[in-house]
Design goal:
Elements lengths: L2 H17 L7 H4 L24 E2 L8 E8 L3 E10 L4 E4 L13 E5 L12 E10 L13 E5 L27 E5 L14 E8 L1 H4 L13 E5 L15 E6 L4 E10 L10 E5 L4 H36 L1
Antiparallel strand pairs: 1-9, 2-3, 2-5, 3-4, 4-7, 5-6, 6-7, 8-9, 8-11, 9-10, 10-13, 11-12, 12-13
Helix pairs in contact: 1-4
Length: about 325
Amino acid sequence: MGWSGCSAVASIGVLFLLLCAAPPIDISAVIPKDECGTRPLVDEITMGNRIVGGHDAQIGSWPWQVSLQVYRFGLGYAHICGGSLINHNSVLTAAHCIRKWRDPEFWRAVIGLHHIFRHHSHTIRSRVRAIIFHSEFNILTFQNDIAIFKLARSIEFNIFIQPICLPDGPLVMTPETPCYIAGWGNTKEKGRPRAILQEAQVGIIATEKCNGLDWYAGAVFDDMLCAGYEGGGIDSCQGDSGGPLMCYFPDHTRYYLVGITSFGMGCGKPKFPGIYIRTTTYRSWINTHIIQYDRSATVSISCVLIFLRVGWAIFLLVL
């Protein structure tokens, strides 16, 4: 191969590197700001104040609710934790859910689910491509208890499946702000999980009060919030971890994911409400990791195709 051939190969190599450079990604295209947080099948009415102390949800009530399930040999898939769909291929959940099963090959996400064992025509089952958990998650204090599941397929939204909105900054919440929890977890401590999705309305409790000596005594950190009732009775429980704490803001006419179900002292005990990870604290972390993953995945696919074409061009030049 002469000098001209070498020069052409070098030029093609430079072109390959340029074409494989990571393209800019618009965060508004990655995480919806407008097309989110709506419930097409449910009227916005006040629900019963009673998934400890809750009741059966209607089909389609929480279209972003996800069941994260692990495959167990000889048993099939079993529900482990909840999650919230935040875009076409990302589910937000709790990091402690994956401490035993970190390999995404064991997981699947089920979206548009109401009865845990009965899938409808609109129910979508997706394998998990990757799991991104916070590198500073502390299993002892539950600080940074947040993770992202990247799905192997892009989910199409419909009246049964919608993403929930993520707050860009702190939202003003008052005792009158309607907030809800949902999940397939136990309906009482040491009880059994429910097959039908449960829902309940909860109140946001000030951190100062929740950290009282006869409450959590300082175990609630700045990246957490408390939700429930002083007298107990209504609370998240085992199996609800990773699921949403969602509040409706009439001015925006949308639901926002304000918290991720993390931990609690028992289930439904007085002065020990559920503890949730504040999503506003981690908005930058969420944005960064979703963008990085989507960019790398896009570049990888593009580079494979470009590499094949460049390789063929070099082969022809060598001839």
